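## retry 2 of 3
previous attempt timed out at serialization; input unchanged, resubmitting
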Amino acid sequence: MTLARVIADPAASGTWALVPNRSSIRFSNKTMWGLVPVNGQFTEFTGDGRITAQDEVSGRLIIQAASLKTGMGKRDEHLRSADFFDAEKFPQITIEVNGLGSDGTLNTTLSVRGTTLPLPLTVTAEPLGDGTLQVTARAEVDRTRWGVSGNMFGMMPTTTTLIADAVFVKA
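## retry succeeded, writing output
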């Protein structure tokens, strides 16, 4: 279902809170010259969203950069370092939602390492039977645009896939 359709429902108006234990924020990047994928997730994040009676949407996700996990401790430490996310200096990754485009794309900005850039997202929305709403987004980004540029010997392509499955409950 499209997010525009959900927003158009008058019952959807109000404030929505992210349910972190039912949500996931993941990434995938190929390494070893594109042969092996590195999959990871962020385990600490919060967020909220608002839908107005005028069919407007806004919201924010705040992701703790140091909560990054790939399943390999040394790699996780390296990804948290200044070579990549620089989690000590820039502890939060933020996604700000500031509207829905006429094409159904969610207008967002992504802030990583002190750099904020537009990131239009194609999303799907699915009302779940328990009164919650699942919003799913997937985007491919050039991570170097946000200063996440670590690349040892050309082993890592710059394209990263971001995947979010965010479940919200009406507050």
